[in-house]
Design brief:
The structure is a homodimer of 351-residue chains. With 351 residues, the first copy, chain A, is of the alpha/beta class. Chain A is 42% helix and 15% strand. In chain A, helix 6 packs parallel to helix 7 (147-154) and helix 10 (240-251) packs across helix 11. The interface between A and B is large, with 56 and 56 residues.
Chain lengths: 351, 351
DNA sequence: CCTCGCGATTTGCGCGCTCAAATTTTACCG
DNA sequence: CGGTAAAATTTGAGCGCGCAAATCGCGAGG
């Protein structure tokens, strides 16, 4: 015991590679090999080492690993405060999916808060230089988002969920086909016999909103639905109150729509509320389809377009860890329609 | 340049302590002191070093710091998948608040996914032994939650948001006073003139639900409200559909309540839906108050009890980093009532 | 019987930093 | 102006690990 260099895993610290090595009577590196390149170790040795690893409950120290291989195996991600007024978006679903996807590749999620876009850029730079995270995930991209270019310039690896209007070919992104989303909604309503399908969206100018509007337009045209008058396309802020007012304008028209496709669940909730106050029963007199499939949609039996967030997260992580692709990879995933009673019934005969 | 030991911050790696030291013509440790104990460094030297730190954009390497001081400055937190059916709880609000609170103390959030409680315990153990996180945050505690004891046994530092029924004096927690919450709701309704205030809660057996029920009971008794018959206390699963059915039972009574206090916003949504189908206008014929102030509540103009999540997060972080308290600290914070139109008007005269 | 070659295993080194102890410098007083 | 204490700064060691090069051991070939 007086022999120098003979450590025991004395209480306190977790066992180290050295501890396991000593216990198994091999060297540090052999234990490391058992973990990372088992084929290099003779089966007999390997088994013995494995035995001691589990007996001591050895767990590699991530900080030491990170330092040695200069890669932290952390994925950085800003967590945004939720926008007051809007229904919760899919932040938590996305974060959970990311964590899940990262786990498979032994990567963890590093969450940080930042006031705004430029604070986020600062934080990312700092975290990256400080080696706290190897790569980052950007989400909720706006049309003219500054972040992709900024990170590109800093040489920070990242993948975006969503994309900007321009320059989207200069960085890797994963996005959901919003155009397809609203198209699916309209198709579904047409199948149910609707011919006057309105669109309730955001004021034009925001990428996502515009794409969703475009999907409605395309579907209306391809089905040759009534829309020539143009009054079936209305816009409002993303709040329930605003949506209620705008929906009233839609309903007081001489030939009101029998169905409304909205750009968000928040707007859809507004449409439903307005319909009720107008004396219509949602699902019977007026069909409504929302977008994002928030928990609220499920609670209110609102049909909604669901983004495949889990797939997105998996693809984002794959792209992040994806070895040295040639050029930025881009993936456009397909959303799905979740049908609930707000749009399940066939259209009632003209009122 | 051939001089050995003379590194330049050549392209690639971020600048290190050594780089800054060399540039400023001082030693490694002096730079370190400027950062951590400026008072030990002579002002003139300090200024020069600071100058070079910012000029080189030096950022301490967190992995190296973590390794050296054997403290990762990371707070571990499991991210749960959201419960299908229930409205989103406050996960994202809490996570954001935690990240925000941790930032002030230079701590970041480490998110991980786990299937269930025991997987979470495993992960926590592994992350802790691996030095990936110094301490952990537990939330959504159930009455007989296994996690506190397990972490206690493993010697892993943690703070819980919420608490178990028994043994809550053996570990540090921060909780919101749920009893007070429903009491506030009832008080508010009584102020508005209501005398028959029903409670719509979870089946008894779950800590949180029971506390919320108790608050209603206390308030009803202290205000001497009608309740002797006992029919004003009803329970259902935490889903909108179930709540609708149960609310109908409440409404078909000979002396129906004029107001309903619920244990969650989900239940409140059910109550609101039921009222509408019954031909009552929420806010005029029937007042409803929810619990948790989810985004849905805001969207539907539902009054709700709001938990001070940001305070909770700050207190959790403070407790986590709090130096060697004597015994576990416990904090019970007060919720607040957010009044919206679902309960704002005075009670209408008896119907 | 000795050497070569190859797989198995070990050693040396450094990742970037902090702590403690050693060393140098500065300031002050007799 | 020497001496000394205090302040300022430097040096040495090591945190736990991975990489690369070095070493060991053993069977085949000459």
């Amino acid at each position: 015991m007086a022999e120098p260099g003979h450590h025991e895993p004395v209480g306190g610290g977790a066992p180290t590679l050295q501890d396991v090595a000593q216990a198994a009577g091999v060297s540090r590196q052999t234990v490391s090999n058992v973990l990372h390149a088992p084929e290099r170790v003779r089966p007999a040795t390997r088994e013995r080492v494995v035995e001691f690893i589990s007996r001591l409950g050895y767990q590699p120290n991530r900080q030491a690993q990170a330092l040695a291989r200069s890669a932290s195996h952390m994925i950085g991600c800003r967590i945004r405060p939720l926008t007051p007024g809007a229904l919760t978006s899919m932040h938590d679903r996305f974060l959970h999916a990311l964590a899940e996807a990262g786990r498979a590749a032994d990567h963890h999620l590093l969450l940080f808060a930042a006031e705004d876009e430029s604070a986020e850029i600062d934080s990312v730079g700092r975290l990256h230089r400080g080696g706290a995270a190897d790569a980052f995930v950007l989400y909720d991209l706006t049309a003219d988002d500054q972040r992709p270019k900024a990170l590109l310039d800093m040489g920070v690896p990242f993948v975006a969920f969503g994309r900007t209007d321009t320059g989207a070919d200069t960085y890797p992104w994963v996005d959901v086909d919003n155009v397809l989303g609203t198209r699916l909604a309209v198709d579904h309503l047409v199948n149910r016999g609707h011919r006057r399908v309105a669109f309730l969206g955001w004021p034009s100018g925001r990428t996502i909103g515009d794409r969703r509007a475009r999907g409605w337009h395309q579907a209306v045209e391809s089905h040759r639905l009534a829309s020539t008058c143009g009054v079936l396309d209305v816009r409002s802020e993303d709040s329930v109150q605003a949506a209620i007012q705008v929906t009233f304008r839609l309903l007081e028209h001489s030939e009101p729509p029998t169905a409304i496709v909205t750009a968000t669940d928040t707007l859809a909730v507004g449409a439903m509320q307005a319909a009720q106050r107008w004396g219509l029963e949602v699902g019977r007199d007026l069909a409504v389809v929302g977008f994002d499939d928030t928990p609220t949609a499920a609670a209110l039996e609102l049909s909604s377009i669901r983004q495949p967030i889990e797939l997105v997260a998996r693809q984002v992580v794959a792209a992040l860890l994806g070895t040295d692709e040639v050029g930025p990879g881009c993936w456009l995933l397909e959303p799905q329609l979740v049908i609930r009673s707000s749009s399940a019934r066939p259209a009632s005969p003209r009122r």
